[in-house]
Amino acid sequence: MTNEPTDRTDVPEDTPVGTDPRHAVSADPPPVSEADALVEVPAEATAPRRINWLAIGGKVASGIVALFLFVLALQLMKSGAVELAPTLRDSPLFSNGASTLGAGWLGAYFVLSGSPIAAVALGLFAGGAITKLQTFTMLSGSRLGASFIVLLVGFLYSVRNRGANREESVGMGILALSLTAIVYLPGMALGYGLLRSGILDGIHWRTSGDVTGVIESVWGPTLNLITGRVPGWLLLPVGLGVILLSFKLLDRVLPQVSGTRVTGKRAEWLKRPWPMFLLGCLVATLTLSVSVALTVLVPLASRGYVKREQSIPYIMGANITTLADTLVAAMLLRNAAAVQIVLAEAIGVSIVSLLYLALLYGPIKRGVIAFDDWVVGDNRRLWVFVAGLFVLPAVLLTSGLWLGPFGR
To answer: Alpha carbon of 121 to those of 18, 31, 112, 128, 171: distances in Å?
Structure first.
């Protein structure tokens, strides 16, 4: 009689003798469940991220040099304005508020940015070359012309990317320019009314005496060296070149904004006016440039991430906080009237923008989009629009030739 185990299992023929098949190790990998596959992390993702100290050091150095050049440029332009004051006061191109409005407008085209021209206006005022009204209008003109780069980038983007939506990319530039105009023109009137009323006369924001002492000790030797070797009439253009260089270096330090960083796909909140308004305020504050803040809209609109009508409150917000660097420049010049001019501009534009968003957003949106579509829909109308962008400020610049001085 043979005793066989009652729980005997079938043993494969290739199982080694003496090996319990229930504990045999299979050559095949164990099955991976779907949940395990989802949580599996690549090896490179778990590796510690190295800190690029060289890149960080380069950004810090760029920031220090940019700050040095920014303050130096303000001092150079102020000194140059003192030398040019008699000439500019007698020039028909700087004889009234309309002419300085055109000068700031065209100047922003020339340097493709409004902030350097706004700094020039403050420097001229601090040096006594132009009046408070002329400073205010030149500052406003720099804002009107700052959005031109959006139209230029939109045109180049549509030419370079054949598959790009021309109506969206070029139309974004037209939208930025037209919307800036309908906000800043009434904002100018309101802001200048505030300035004339004396409401802001009690504001005397300026850098402290300790900061002024540091500026004199750190920047004084370089300033004296340049002013001693460069003719006085050349100090203003040299200061403009220096401040352009400082903004170029600042671009390496400040956060870089791209379409993929703003959004990877259209978010629901991009369709709401107030979040977009706050986003525009934030981006312009971080980048210190309305040109950068608005130019990022070109690829976003062309790729369909954001529609033109959704960008309207974003543009309004960016046009307000872009004055932050100009306010800092006025404080560094230690000129209370210059600070009041910048604040009056910012308050006027803010009030107009908030009223548009709260009460007139629907009509404003339909009106500017209809005008945008009308212009971009025909090449002849588009070229007439572009020509008008140069003819109108040129007429304002030369207004002193037939109107003479007024409003000084």
So the answer is: 96, 73, 16, 11, 30
Which of the pair, 234 or 347, is modelled with greater confidence? 347
Asked if 222 contacts 73 with a C-beta cutoff of 8 angstroms, the reply is no
Handedness of CA 394, 196, 180, 145 (dihedral sign): positive
Question: 165 falls in which pLDDT band (50, 70, 90)?
Answer: low
Distance in angstroms (rounded) separating the CA atoms of residues 183 and 285 = 19
Residues 6+ apart with CB under 8 A from 361: 273, 312, 313
96: β partners: 406
- First-last CA distance in the chain: 128
* C-alpha–C-alpha distance, residues 94 and 109, integer Å: 18
Total-model pTM: 0.77
pLDDT at 212: 65
Q: How many residues does the chain have?
A: 408
Angle at 363 between CA 357 and CA 367, to 5 degrees: 115
Return mean pLDDT, the chain: 80
Q: How is the chain split into domains, by residue range? A: 60-403
Whole-angstrom Cα Rg for the chain: 30
* Residue 184 structure tokens: 């800043």
